[in-house]
Design a protein that fits this description.
Layout lengths: L2 E10 L2 E11 L4 E5 L6 H9 L6 E6 L2 E2 L5 H7 L1 E4 L11 H9 L11 H8 L1 H5 L10 H14 L4 E5 L7 H18 L2 E6 L2 H7 L2 E6 L2 E7 H6 L1 H7 L4
Parallel strand pairs: 3-8, 3-9, 6-7, 7-8
Antiparallel strand pairs: 1-2, 1-4, 4-5, 9-10
The protein binds adenosine-5'-triphosphate (ATP).
Length: 237
């Protein structure tokens, strides 16, 4: 059982971006994909959820290949993304945004609702329940976007740069929330981040993406302490 990306190729119009990308995420695992600006991280996430067409290779989860399914069907199966820039419905309230997440849950709903645990741990989301989403701060919006994704009962959760534009303090909160989501949902999480240091500190395993190819992979702590990664991605000379 795992989310598997096998030899994936995708891109925009005539420009190929990803080539031969293979990775996997097991249930309950937190896997980071790090790489510099333009390496193809967003392209990877959008390809897995079906916003971009897979040109070669395969995508599969516990039920087999989903490479030919629509983005909607993939979400129904439990492959859920939190996009870069959060993408909440700006004029809907926090509660309405989260309710929309629930609609993707389908048959996976039932049992203990993991959203309750998140709201208890981060009461700010509950306090903002009736407010219009676009009136929230960036950090609060990211919390809501993560909560909405959890409402969809993901089996695999793909997070595209959740720390983007946030202060170091808010980034810390977002990483704590991601930890809690892993603990409460048992979902496999693929975390795509430019903040390599934090992402590698949080992750079990990691992949380094460069120019649309995986150039390194392994235990996240080992990668974090490797000279090559430190020089290239952690700003250490
Ligand atoms: P960032 O951290 O800056 O978001 P990234 O690693 O997520 O970087 P991508 O956004 O996946 O990188 O972009 C990979 C490449 O694809 C870049 O060269 C980018 O210019 C190109 N690209 C991204 N979006 C489009 C698009 N809509 N049309 C054409 N090319 C695009």
């Amino acid at each position: 059982m795992s989310l598997v990306v096998e030899n994936a190729e995708s891109g925009y119009d005539r420009a190929p971006i990803l080539s031969g990308v293979s990775l996997r995420v097991e249930p309950g695992e937190l896997v980071a994909v790090v790489g510099s600006n333009g390496a193809g991280k967003t392209t990877l996430v959008r390809t897995v959820v079906g916003q971009l067409a897979l040109r070669a290779g395969d995508l599969a989860d516990d039920d087999g290949s989903f490479a030919r399914l629509s983005p909607h069907r993939r979400a129904k199966r439990g492959v859920v993304m939190v996009p870069e820039g959060r993408k909440l419905f700006p004029r809907l309230t926090v509660g309405e945004n989260i309710a929309l997440g629930r609609r993707a849950a389908g048959r996976r709903a039932g049992g203990e609702d993991p959203v309750d645990a998140l709201l208890d741990a981060f009461p700010i989301v509950r306090e903002r329940w009736g407010q219009q989403a676009n009136l929230l701060s960036g950090g609060e919006q990211q919390m809501v976007a993560l909560t909405r994704a959890v409402a969809a009962r993901p089996r695999y959760l793909l997070l595209d740069e959740p720390s983007l534009g946030l202060s170091p303090l808010k980034t810390l909160d977002v990483f704590r929330l991601i930890e809690l989501i892993r603990e409460r949902t048992g979902a496999g999480i693929l975390l795509v981040e430019q903040m390599a240091d934090q992402a590698l500190a949080a992750a079990d395993r990691a992949y380094v993406l460069e120019h649309g190819r995986i150039v390194m992979e392994g235990d996240a702590a080992k990668l974090r302490s490797s000279d090559e990664v430190r020089r290239a991605y952690l700003g250490v000379s």
